[in-house]
Specification:
Blueprint (H helix, E strand, L loop, with lengths): L5 E6 L2 E6 L10 H17 L4 E6 L19 H17 L4 E5 L3 E2 L1 H7 L3 E5 L3 E3 L13 H9 L1 H10 L3 E2 H7 L4 E3 L4 H13 L3 H14 L4 H16 L2 H12 L9
Parallel strand pairs: 2-3, 3-4, 4-6, 5-7, 6-9
Antiparallel strand pairs: 1-2, 7-8
Helix pairs in contact: 1-2, 4-5, 8-9
């Protein structure tokens, strides 16, 4: 498949996926969503990627769903056919995901940015739950993610007031991991993705799954999941390498196996 709305590069286990519609501030449409789904499926199936970095071309990360093309009578059908499958695929990946938020992340673009395991934002970036401003409800996982990231009160205010949340405020709220100067974003996010790509990838997958499940289950269930995951992790060659490296006082050479 030839991509028209995204660009994808591979380098030493890091796949960089760039939303590439700068003229629309990387607005989402069905074609872009379909390309992202295809790309994520390909990266999953090829099993060469050990970390994924998502960013936007130009001066925005993603301005949300494109409005100029209109909506069907059932606006929720777009979620069912494209945007929800995209989010579910992103969360199900067996390698870590980093987003480098280089500018506005609004509406569905806000959801996409915050769905990553680690979110790094440029100082000039902002996050906006824009749905209420056009008479729609938050979607693409916003009502699930935001209360868990920032707490119910802040999430509800974001959704009902439709106000911009600057990157530094998002960092204080715990929405994102880190704010960096604009000119440092590309380098810092790439370095972070490369660090993850050189780590114990199978363990990262277990951590991603366990954290998601912990938000919906009891302490007892979380303890059970930790016990099962530790059994799996303890049988990996990366665990053996990690222990050997620790005892030898040398850096570990993880293989993701």
């Amino acid at each position: 498949m030839t991509y028209q709305h995204i660009a994808v590069q591979q380098d030493q286990g890091v796949a960089t996926l760039t939303l590439n519609r700068p003229g629309t501030l990387n607005a989402l449409n069905l074609e872009l969503a379909a390309e992202m789904i295809h790309c994520l499926d390909r990266l999953r199936d090829e099993r060469k990627t050990r970390a994924l970095l998502i960013t936007g071309a130009g001066r925005a990360f993603c301005s949300g769903t494109e409005l100029s093309g209109g909506f069907p009578d059932d606006a929720g059908s777009l979620l069912e056919s494209h945007y929800n499958p995209l989010l579910e695929r992103l969360l199900a990946l067996q390698f870590p995901v980093v987003t480098a938020v280089n500018g506005p992340a609004a509406g569905a673009g806000c959801s996409l940015a915050l769905a990553a395991d680690i979110v790094v934002a440029a100082r000039s970036a902002y996050f906006l739950q824009a749905f209420v401003n056009i008479g729609l409800v938050p979607d693409v996982g916003s009502t699930w993610m935001l209360p868990r990231l920032a707490g119910r009160a802040r999430a509800q205010a974001m959704m009902m007031l439709g106000e911009r949340i600057p990157a530094e405020q998002a960092e204080r709220w715990g929405l994102i991991y880190k704010v960096v100067d604009d000119d440092a974003l590309a380098g810092e996010s790439q370095a972070l993705a490369k660090k993850l790509a050189n780590g114990p990838t199978r363990v990262y997958a277990l951590i991603r799954q366990a954290l998601r499940e912990s938000l919906q289950c009891s302490l007892t269930e979380s303890l059970r999941i930790e016990r099962e995951n530790q059994m799996i992790a303890g049988r990996t060659s990366d665990f053996a390498e990690g222990v050997a490296a620790f005892l030898a006082r040398r850096p570990a050479a993880f293989k993701g196996q």
